[in-house]
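pinging the channel bc i need a second pair of eyes. not urgent but kinda urgent?? the chain im working w is below, pasted from the shared doc
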Amino acid sequence: MKKVKYVLGSTIFKEGDLSQEAYRIIKGKVELTTDVDSKPVILAQLGKGDIFGEMAMIDERPRTASAQCLKPTECEVMDPGDFQSLILDQPARSLPYLSALFEQLRSVTSRLQHEGRVAPQSQVSPLENAVPNKPTPIEAHPFSPFQMQAESQQETAVSTIILTPMTPTCSSVMPEGYEAMQLVKFPFCIGRKTQSGSHHVEVLSANDFMIADMLPFQVSRNHCSIEREGDRYFVRDRGSTLGTIVNGVPLGAKKERLIYELLPGANELIVGSKQSPYVFQINLT
C-alpha cells in the first residue's frame, strides 16, 4: 500500500476510468462529481479520514464519478491485493474500508426496498442513483461568524449550512463546546452512538455526528445524512427504523420518499418519529 501526494486541482480519477484503487484521505480535501448533461454535478466533498472509490475494488466497473483535489492532498492508495493482505494480516486497518463498503450496501438496499414500494418517477434526481462514499470523522465547526467568514473565503458557490439543536435533549447530545455546527463536508451522516470501550472501532456504523440516544431508541445506528448535489442540498434517510421527518415530510424506505430537498432559510429536521426529542434546524443561507 502506498501514499500519494496530489497538488491543488489534481484529478485522482475520472468518471468512466477502469482503475480499481480505493483511497483514504490523510490530509487535504477531495470533491466527487458526476457529469449530468455535460455539466459537473457535485456529489460529495471529503476530508481527512474519508474513504472513496472503494467499490471499484469489488465490482470492477468503470468509475461512476470523478475525484479532484480542492486542496493539496495526500492519500493512502489501496488496490485489491492490498485490501486482501490487510484483512488477513492487519484486520484492524481494514475496518474503515469495510465500514465504507457496508454504508454503500446499506444505501443500495434502502433504495431497492423503496423502489419496490413506490412506482418509479419519470425524472429521478442523479442523487437517487449516485451514492457518495461515506466519510467517517466529524469535521464541523462550533458556530462562529468568524469561522463562517473564513470558510466562505475558501469555498466558492457553497451555501452556509448551520445545524442547530432545537430542544434541550438535542443540546445535550451536541459535541462538547458546540452550540451549533457549520457543515463543511458532504455527505454529513447522523446516527446513534453505540455503547463501547474507548478503543472500540465501529464497523457497521459510519457517522459524522453520533447521538447518544437512550431506550426506547428514536435514532438508528445509521439514520440519515445531509448531502449535496451541485448547489442543491438534501436530507436522505439511510434506512432508519422510525424514519426521518423534514419540514413535516416523512422520509424512509417504508415512506413515499427517501430524500427531501432543503429550502433556503430554516428547515426542521426530526431524527426519528414525531415523538422524537431530537429536533434540529438546518439553516441554508
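so The CA atoms of residues 39 and 81 lie 35 Å apart. and The chain has six helices and 20 strands. — does that match what u expected or am i reading it wrong
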